[in-house]
Amino acid sequence: MNAANATSAARPPPSPSDRIERVAQFAGARFEKSVVDAAGLPPPTGPEIAFAGRSNAGKSSSINRLAGQTRLAFASKLPGRTRELNFFPLRNGGYLVDLPGYGFARTPRDKQRVWSGVIEHYFRDRAALAGVVLVLDLRRAPTALDLQFVRWLSEQRASRPPILWLLNKADKLTQSERSKARQAFLDAVGDAVAASDAIVAFSAATGLGMKECAAVFDRWLQPSR
User: Fold this and answer.
1) 225 inside domain
2) How many domains does the chain have?
3) Is 134 left (phi over 0), alpha (psi -120 to 50) or beta?
4) What is the distance between the alpha carbons of residues 41 and 48, in angstroms, rounded to a whole number?
5) pLDDT at residue 116, rounded to an integer
6) 32-36, 110-114, 122-126, 159-163: least confident range
7) Looking at residue 49, which CATH number applies to its domain?
8) Range of the structural domain that residue 202 is part of
9) Segment 94-144, tens digit of pLDDT
């Protein structure tokens, strides 16, 4: 057995409990509109979940896996170039909101305006926002930009929304490596993780962590929020 096969053999397949096609809350989600200014925001219809993350963390593939679709969210051929907020209505009301990625040094000026304009307005004033999914790569330590985003999010309103720290690409690690990577993540983020947050080791490739995500979304999407 060569080294590559040995590494592959050491990684157990996802357990049957993780093999679900989609989280029920996102079933039937469809694209409705893209928004580039506050005037274009759709009227709230229920609790909303926003997805954020660096442009190479796998945000689009994570959304597609969670929704059980292959092309609901599109990854740009030029990472970091998506400039709109994309709204996907959910079957029981509310929206899944896909934000532009962040983290590339050469950020276009118009994208900077989106982040300082409509996105800032969305996080500051959107009462329907129930939670934020922050997609990260489990194999990499959170960057200064990731932590800067969390600090910025906390500054937008008196009480920041809960965050689901979605640690993607967990299928690339063995179970032992995942435990070590999770601890390294906790050491790196420190008190940036709030008591209302959740942390899930996830894989957009295999569906690992789907049940844990569904439980978080179930709490966030309760109509009483």
Assistant:
1) no
2) 1
3) beta
4) 12
5) 64
6) 110-114
7) 3.40.50.300
8) 3-220
9) 999 999 887 544 444 554 555 668 888 999 999 999 999 999 999 999 999
